[in-house]
Write a structure and sequence with these properties.
8% of the residues lie in helices and 26% in strands. By secondary structure, the protein is mostly beta strands.
Length: 180
């Protein structure tokens, strides 16, 4: 783990290039109920409610139709496209003409960074992304060595933040992210 340049918040090693983003979950639980968030070394310590890092922050450019996530540095299409198969979503993002940028389907990790686990139906900041339905959004394709990798892609739920993979022939939503 290294420290984030903008926020001083830790950046996990691996494929994430930005500081940790707060999940929006501020409560802690035991096996049955909500509890005060436990101290280090106590049972149930380590839940999202114990960590309040990476406050979400966005710059909305209404005239351009874009949103910059100032924690991750990603620039997002503010709108989305509904009911497209994965190949259609990829083509849509690859050919999107918005704000003079090139666009692509986000990685699963990137689209998941928009999920606010303190909200549901939809699990996203509606003041920033007002038209987001409580529904699934396309992410990255599934990679080898999965035997059906060429047929599958990841999806992220903005109902509750759940992530799973599905057939690319299904129809879901897509929100494009600016190419680096």
């Amino acid at each position: 783990i290294k420290s984030g340049a903008k926020s001083g918040v830790p950046i996990p090693s691996g494929n994430q290039r930005w500081a940790l983003v707060g999940t929006g979950q501020y409560q802690c639980f035991d096996n049955e109920k909500m509890i005060p968030c436990p101290m280090p070394g106590s049972p149930y310590f380590g839940q999202d409610g114990n960590y309040q890092a990476g406050t979400r922050s966005y710059n909305i450019n209404e005239s351009a139709g874009t949103v910059e996530d100032t924690v991750t540095g990603l620039i997002w299409q503010r709108a989305h496209r509904s009911e497209v198969k994965w190949a259609e979503a990829k083509s849509y993002c690859d050919n999107l003409s918005l704000a003079g940028f090139r666009w692509r389907i986000p990685t699963t990790h990137e689209i998941k960074s928009l999920v606010d686990y303190g909200k549901s139906n939809p699990a996203i900041d509606k003041s920033v992304f007002p038209d987001t339905p409580s529904d699934w959004f396309w992410g990255s394709p599934v990679r080898e060595p999965h035997p059906r990798a060429g047929e599958l892609a990841w999806i992220v739920s903005f109902i509750d933040g759940f992530v799973e993979y599905t057939a690319r022939s299904n129809t879901y939503n897509v929100r494009c992210v600016k190419v680096d």
